[in-house]
Every structure is written in structure tokens, then in C-alpha cells.
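[Meeting: bench + compute handoff]

Bench side (C.D.) handed over the final construct sequence. Compute side (W.E.) agreed to return the predicted structure before the next meeting so the bench team could plan truncations. Sequence as handed over:
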Amino acid sequence: MQEDYVRNRTGHLEPITTSPTPQTGTSSGQRDNRYFGLTLFLVGLTCLIATRANLPALSDVTAGLFIFTVLISFLKQQIAVTRKTVYFAIGLLLLFAENLLFTVNTFDFKIYIKLLALCVSVILWIQLTRSNFHIALRKITVVLCALSLPFYIWQVLHISSLTSFVQSIHQWMPWISAGRVHQDIDALNILIYTVETKENFRNSGAFWEPGGFAAFLNLSLALHLIQNRFVFDRHARLIILTLMTTFSTTGYVVLFILLIFAMSNRMLNNITPGILAIRLFLITALGLFFFYLFYAVPIFRDKIDTQISAQQILISDIDFDNPNFGSLGRFGSMIVDLRSIQDRPLFGRGYSDSEFKAQFENYNFTNGLTSFMGHFGLVGLAWLLYSTFSSGKSIFRQYNPEARFPAFLTIVVLTIAFSNPILLTPLLLYFQLHFISTS
């Protein structure tokens, strides 16, 4: 159902529907509550999947529950499938056919069907939750922030007692813990929080690592700022405060991009050319100062230098067939991914890349952007750029038609993906497939 917007007394946008008002207010309210409950449940499932920190989050059962609930709810609501959805599904099937006939040696039908079902269900999910998605995401984000901060303070002040507490929970609820994706003993998860026993000054929230939590917070903040006309209310301030405790390099860079975007939209409205030039100069100067400050702070400069050095060693181990396990990091992952498609750059190594996985089973790839390119090649990269830009325009039209620079969402998604392998999770697919859900 298409929406218009009106300003409330505080100047924010509020959705109004163009459908007739029902006569029975009580039944309408109950129906609205059930509908928002469904939205909250589905958005909660996508956030759980995005955490990647425990067995429920990593389980195919959770993904299956999301897909099944979306399909059943979509059929009950009797919402029409958009023509773009049909075209997208056909295009994806053609890509699968290319993989089967020309690219992969072992075609795993199961993972291709799962990808198709996930992508289509995300499109239908966007149609189902169009009017309430941002509200549900904001509520869940605020709760996760509020839960993480007391645990974070406990972690900083007395890590040993917090570790003992978490381990006691694992004793009677062993199904919770999955460490990180590769059984990392430095991270202990209890659904609502992940304890960082090694880097105890960093806040992971409910996510598998601090960078993942920062990525989630930035995506939620981006949508909130767009809908809220770039006003930094108490919700935005809480998200920013929590994000600062992650000490995530990429998280801080994306936050800076969001701040520049918000400032640009607020400063470039209804002004003369002279004032516009001054404000553009100030924004540019602020950007240069930020990057100087960023690389002047030892904690970030040393972190980047250490990562590059460690990744060079790991790449050398790969070249000499050293079986040692390690995380390749964003730069090491990029090098290995690009190497893998140098002979077939157009369509990449295929989505079902079992031989590649067997060759590098001892290594953890963290660059989601180049991993996507590895799977789908330059065709996949072109699609990613087009889909995120088109979805940016579609999200702007829905939440704030007066907002400028929809390409900023593309920059945000690509920057996050460069450090996090989460492009094919429902939450990131929302920012890629939103435009397909519109007529």
C-alpha cells in the first residue's frame, strides 16, 4: 500500500495511508497491533540472523522460519507480487544456469534454492512491513543498545567475573554458544551480549564481533536519520554513544559518512549560492580534519598497520601451502578473492564454489565485498552498485522524498561490506532489493 506523509507538530514525518478509515475502531486497532507484532517478529528474526554469534543465529532453521513466515503472511494478506520480483527471479535463475553449465564443477542445488528463496522472501518481507519496518528496527536497536551498555561496563571493569557468569549460563544452556563463526574462544555469547575476553575495551553487543555490531548500528542509524529528517533525537544519540564503544575502524568511518550526509541535507536546503559555498568548504575541511585525526590516533593507526602485516604473513603461508589457520582480514581476503577470478572475471568462480572452500578451509574471509565479487564476478559488482543506488532512491521516496544524495546509501553498504561478509543476510538484502518491492 503506497503511503503519503504529513508533518507532525515536531516537524517529523508520519505515515498516513490513503485507504478508507474503517468504521470499527477497536477491531482496526487490534488488526494494526497484530500487523505490527508480525513486523516486529520478522525484523527481530533478521536481526538475530545478522548477529551470527550463536547457534540459533547460524541455524538454517532460523532462516527457514523467516522464509516460511514471510510466505504464509504474504499469502494471507493477498498482496500482489510486483513485476520486478518476477524479472528478478528469472534473472537469478539464469545466473544459476550459467553456474551449472559453465562455471562450477559441483553444483549444489540446495544452496542455490536457499539463495533464491531468501532473496524472494526478503522482497515480499519489504512489501509486508513497508509502513512499520523503520519503527520495529529502531525499537530493536534501542533495546540492543540499552542491553549492551551495562554488560560492556561490566566487561571493562571486571572481565573475569563476567566471563564466569557467561560460562555458568553455558553450562545449563549449551545450545546458545557458538563462539564466533569459527569457534573463537575469545568471544562468549549469551544471545543478548558477546563477551570480548581478549579486547575487553570493545563492545560487541549481541553480534559476533564489535565491527558487526557497528555495522548494524550504522544501518539502523542511517534509516532513522532519513525518516527523521536528519534530526539527532535521543534514539540517534543513544545509537551513536553505543557505536563509539565498539572501537570499530570501519564503524567510525561509516558514522563519519552518515554525519556528513546528515549535515549536507540540513545545510543545503533553501540557501544562497554564497552560503552554499561556505558550507561546502566547512564540510570539506571537517572531512580532511577527521581523516588526519583518524590516522593520528595510535589505536587506529597501529591496528591498521598490524592487520596489514599479519595478513601479508598469512598470504605468504597460502602461497607456500602452509595449513595454519587464520583470518585473512579485509585486505588479505581481497587479494585472494581477486586472484580466484582473474581467469573468469565476468561471472566469478560461482556461488557453489566448493573447490575454493576446500582449498582455503583453514582461512576466515572477512571482506564481504570482494567475496561477493568472487562469487558473481564483475556482473555481480555491477548489479550490487545498481541495486543499492536504486534502493537508495526507493527508500528516500518512502521515508523522506526531500532528502538528497541517495548514492550515499551505496557508499554506506559498500563500506560496511568491505569489512563484513554479510551482504547476503536479510538485513543487508533490504538495502539491495527495496526498489524491487515497489510497483
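W.E. noted at the follow-up: The radius of gyration is 22 Å. C.D. will use this when planning the next construct.
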